[in-house]
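Lecture notes, unit on protein representations.

Consider one protein chain, 305 amino acids long.
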Amino acid sequence: MSDMLEDIQLTKRLLEQFLVVAGEKHFGRAAERLGMSQPPLSQSIQRLERGLGVRLFERGPGGVALTAAGEVFVTDAQRLLDSQSAAIERVRRVASGLEGDVRVGYVSVLSHHYLPGLLRAAAEELPGLRVHLHQEPAAALTEMVRAGTLDLAFLRDPSRLSADLVSRNFAVERMAAALPRHHPLAEADEVSLGDLRDEDFVLPDATVLPALAHQVQLACREAGFTPRSRAVSDDLTGLFSYVASGLCVSLLPEALRDFHVPEVAFVSLRGTSPYLETSLVAVHHPDADAAVLSLLELITRRVAE
């Protein structure tokens, strides 16, 4: 049949028709299964054979039998159908946010408290997502999201966020007093912020962490004093280090007590001041794809549980 070749598209319908005929070995029964009349089915198979340049069936009065080429094409036709179905399913999964690659940035201390749970939850509920992690300071993370080198960033201080990015709170943490382990108040169940009025503080750097620095100032002023600065740090690990040195105290999110720095004691703060709460935010582009939004919905839900 090589001299009878014609262009043909191996459509899903044509492949299905061939496989049904191959299974039934009878055009009449195959046509009935396919919900069509026999002549169009016969014409489709003939067109397939001309397009392939081979005879797929031997016709007889009692039905049809597969040729050697037809036997081989059964396997390949099924493989093509399976590949088409997988491709369709995959693109639908990607569009729905169930599969794909998501590049996630985070500030250092979030890796200890939130990221392990996020990765476990993603593996359980969104196994088709591949999460790639990148650690940087908060300012660098927002620039990377803006530039498109990150899809999503988790940080604590969104004050420098530009209008072309979107932020969404995914957790609220209570602030606590971070004290050197041998501080006289380190074993207390709770203290008031005013109890620390005579202490030296290590404070967040107002140029790098302006929102957190402003919040600490407002909380202390509400308690009746201005914190006396011994040092400043541009990230939370630096604040930890100064407190661990025994030189000063600080205010840190209470959840960071799980960070397990032996020389630092966390003591709860009395009061209901709004300045004693800090928000964690997720930052992304307004047109973030479905995979990014699925991951964000997952962590927001898990944190709320």
